[in-house]
Design goal:
588 residues; Phosphoenolpyruvate Carboxykinase, domain 1; Phosphoenolpyruvate Carboxykinase, domain 3; Phosphoenolpyruvate Carboxykinase, domain 2; 3 domains; 9-stranded mixed beta sheet; 30 strands
């Protein structure tokens, strides 16, 4: 491949390896990572074929301030993206790339996002000098000879260039986690469908099939081709009557998306199955309905907070064949993180490699510690999760982390009103991204950090998609908030598995059997329509969970208008009309 040879001349690796995705290749790379100190093999009896990695302390999360959209104009990138001129950025990064792989092996990783042969799927080829990236990519994407065959047949691909930015010389020694924190770039070129990343070996900065391709580049492709690339889970909900509905849901990172995707319902005879926990690609089918696939092959989940109480199915997925990054290690060769058990075990080694005690101050696992696990190992995985045609959506849910704004669940009046709900989605920031934790920011459709073009145009794309089919065939749109707090600071809703009660109301609303009341925000559950059997929730808490506080929303409207004004003339007029309508309804 001429493209590979051209980059080999720039990057100057000592060796080149075309990855096949085979078991033997994976085992060889894991042994190499063990020998370099990057991996520690976990207890074979407790967690077979699994490893733990501890990153450089400066390379622990997405770096949004070093993530760029290099489009022809700044307006095309929009106000929420860091824009760079593509010509200037290419020139700047090329200087970093020259000789960046000296002393290392360049791995050529052909991968497929989505089931191979699916009309939804996209192929990428990543060049990387990180074996850690290769083994994680084998779990998260589909790598194999069948992908190579697709390329040999002339299938197009998204070029992905990645280097940790730490070349080796005869006099230098390698380190367990090579990176270049002073010179990090995660650059996207939407017009030419390319991804260049430099300096980081962590997560979405380096696993370029995930947020970079599956969202930032795919969102631009989807806009041009008439489909949707979304930061959404997909699940199946089956009622006691045997009726199955598929639901997609968008939550900002760290707001319980994986927990919801793997939910074990508390309602008797209701069943929830997992199709995906993070990304969904949506297209209209021949029947006029919106169909979805999960383009990923694995889970890259946040470990802290994952416990038998919050997500049993996630833990059951981690019994073997997994990679853990920046978790704490136990003395018997297993992993631990905050809330995994009621109290930490003795003699922990923290994520920075130092002995940990309760007096250490900092938590033993990094707040953004991760697990990488094959999706097929999840006990709740749906049998149709790899169906190349996808599944038809009945509902789309938006949800954020807000302590005082937003009822427990709201149904939109129409597709356009649902797009308005998605456009004003806001949440308190978490440790999944660098920056201050706890700040409230608007995160439209939970895709703000991951959209490859102007978010105002993206909202317009959502409105246009709703005009492409009969309104009665579109999924119903809902808005949820599991994180409302009382005046005393406690959560009013138990969340986790109890969210199945809200899912039931959503499904019954789709089927036309749920009772609701109309409010300025949309339709809320009517008194008695939420199934609360066996749940000892105080009446006052339920009333507050479903209350629309007009004074609070009056202040929120000011924030929404400021949020909208940032998009200037790229924001669709229809959404401004929804703001005016909400204000009029709140005023009575």
């Amino acid at each position: 491949m001429r493209w590979v040879q051209a980059w080999r001349a720039v990057l100057a690796p000592d060796d080149v390896h075309l990855c096949s995705g085979s078991d033997s290749e994976y085992e060889h790379l894991c042994r190499r990572l063990e020998a370099s100190g990057t991996f520690r093999r976990l207890n074979r009896e407790l967690r077979p074929n699994s490893f733990a990695a501890l990153s450089h302390p400066a390379d622990v999360a997405r770096v949004e301030n070093r993530t760029f959209i290099a489009s022809r104009s700044q307006h095309e990138a929009g106000p929420t993206n860091n824009w760079r001129d593509p010509t200037e950025l290419r020139s700047e990064m090329l200087e970093h790339f020259r000789g960046a792989m000296r002393g290392r092996c360049m791995y050529v990783v052909p991968f497929c996002m989505g089931p191979i042969g699916s009309p939804f799927s996209q192929i990428g080829v990543q060049l990387t000098d990180s074996p850690y990236v290769v083994v994680n990519s084998r779990i998260m994407t589909r790598i194999g000879d069948n992908v190579i065959s697709e390329l040999e047949g002339g299938h197009s691909f998204v070029p992905c260039i990645h280097s940790v930015g730490a070349p080796l010389t005869a006099s230098s020694e390698d380190v367990p986690w090579p990176c270049n924190p002073e010179n990090r770039y995660i650059a996207h070129f939407p017009e030419t469908r390319e991804i260049w990343a430099f300096g980081s070996g962590y997560g979405g900065n380096a696993l370029l099939g995930k947020k970079c391709l599956a969202l930032r580049i795919a969102s631009a492709i989807a806009r041009d081709e008439g489909w949707m690339a979304e930061h959404m889970l997909i699940l199946g909900v089956t009622s006691p009557a045997g009726r199955k509905h598929y639901v997609a849901a968008a939550f900002p990172s760290g707001c319980g998306k994986t927990n919801m995707a793997m939910m074990i319902p508390t309602l008797r005879d209701w069943k929830v199955e997992t199709l995906g926990d993070d990304i969904a690609w949506l297209r209209f089918g021949e029947d006029g309905r919106l169909w979805a696939i999960n383009p990923e092959n694995g889970f890259f989940g946040i470990a802290p907070g994952t416990s038998p109480k919050t997500n049993y199915n996630a833990l059951a997925s981690l019994g073997g064949n997994c990679i853990f990054t920046n978790v704490a290690l136990t003395e018997d060769g297993d992993v631990w993180w905050q809330d995994l058990t009621d109290s930490p075990p003795p003699n922990l080694t923290s994520w920075d490699g130092e002995p940990w005690t309760p007096e250490s101050g900092d938590p033993p696992a990094h707040p953004n510690a991760r697990f990488t696990a094959p999706a097929a190992q999840c006990p709740s995985i749906a049998p149709e999760w790899e169906d190349p045609q996808g599944v038809p959506l009945s509902a789309i849910i938006f949800g954020g982390r807000r302590g005082s704004v937003g009822p427990l669940v709201t149904a939109a009046r129409s597709w356009a009103h649902g797009v308005f709900m998605g456009s004003i989605l806001s949440s308190e920031t978490t440790a999944a991204a660098t920056g201050k934790v706890g700040q409230v920011r608007f995160d439209p459709f939970a895709i703000r950090p991951f959209c490859g073009y102007n978010l105002g145009d993206y909202m317009g794309h959502w409105l246009e998609m709703g005009e492409r089919t009969d309104q009665g065939l579109l999924p119903r749109i809902f808005w949820v908030n599991w994180f409302r707090r009382g005046d005393d600071g406690r959560f009013l809703w138990p969340g986790f598995s109890e969210n199945s009660r809200v899912l039931r109301w959503i499904v019954e609303t789709v089927e036309g059997t749920a009772k609701s009341v109309e409010t300025p925000l949309g339709f809320l559950p009517a008194p008695g329509s939420l199934d609360l059997s066996g749940l000892p929730i105080p009446a006052a808490d339920l009333e507050e969970l479903l209350r629309v506080n007009t004074s609070v929303w009056g202040e929120e409207l000011k924030l929404i208008r400021n949020h909208y004004e940032s998009f200037e003339d790229r924001l669709p007029k229809r959404l401004w009309e929804e703001v005016d309508r909400l204000e009029a309804l709140l005023q009575g």
